[in-house]
Amino acid sequence: MPLDTGLLYGEMVGSAFAHAAIPIGAILIIRALRDVIPPQTSLIFLAICISLSFLTQMAFLMILQANACSGIKNFVGIAHGALIAALITGGMVSIPIFIEPMRFMVSQLFIDHKILLTPELQKLYDTTAQAGVDIMSISKPEGDVLKPSGSIDKEGYEDQTLSELSAGSSYWSAFAGAYGVAFGSLMAATCPSVGGASGP
């Protein structure tokens, strides 16, 4: 039975949405295990995304093979296809992890990035910001005034980075999900030979 291209395109869209949620799930796992995981959070985040991607793509590719081969008959092909798809996800998610501007390109649409300051620079920043508020209050007492942005410590900065990773990686992971199904289907939708003839 030939591969149903309508099903393939539908799964590419479904996988894109599922993979957009994977980084969010990875961040929730990291935050839940914050007290027991080592400090290399970026690598742990990447490993979780790849693992969740593999499981997700396995499910999508099993459906494809069941449709193309009238059942699941080539589990090795599904596993190979899911592995290829998961590696694509790993490559795409690595972009916002290791290239900060590519992460900010998306995350700054949702998160106001605050830089991590030394205690001395933070004190100077807070003093300057408060002076600006005082001046605005005097010159425009009847209106809304600017409020200084809250200070951010090391723990807050790390939490901010996790949120930025979640937002920035979701965008790239969604593309990986769609491409992963497309490339993975080349192996997963290949039916085992029957009587010397192989299915599509």
Provide structural commentary.
The chain has 200 residues and is an all-alpha fold. It has two domains: 5-116 and 159-188, no CATH class; 117-151. It is 72% helix and 0% strand. The chain is built from six helices and no strands. It has helices spanning 5-32, 41-68, 75-98, 100-107, 119-139, 154-188. Helix 1 (5-32) packs antiparallel against helix 6 (154-188), helix 2 (41-68) packs parallel to helix 6 and helix 4 (100-107) packs across helix 6. The radius of gyration is 24 Å and the shape is elongated. Mean pLDDT is 78; it is low at 143-148 and 195-200.
Give a nutshell description of this structure.
Helix content is 72%, strand content 0%. It is mainly α and 200 residues long.
How are the secondary structure elements laid out?
Elements: H1 5-32, H2 41-68, H3 75-98, H4 100-107, H5 119-139, H6 154-188
Helix pairs in contact: 1-2, 1-6, 2-3, 2-6, 3-4, 3-6, 4-6
Specify the structural class: mainly alpha
Q: SSE string, helix = H, strand = E?
A: HHHHHH
Tally of separate domains: 2
- Strand percentage: under 5%
Percent helix range: over 70%
Mass-distribution shape: elongated
Uncertain runs: 143-148, 195-200
- Total beta strands: 0
Q: Please tell me the overall pLDDT.
A: 78
How far from one another are the termini? 7 Å
Radius of gyration: 24 Å
Question: So what's the oligomer here?
Answer: single chain
Main sheet makeup: none
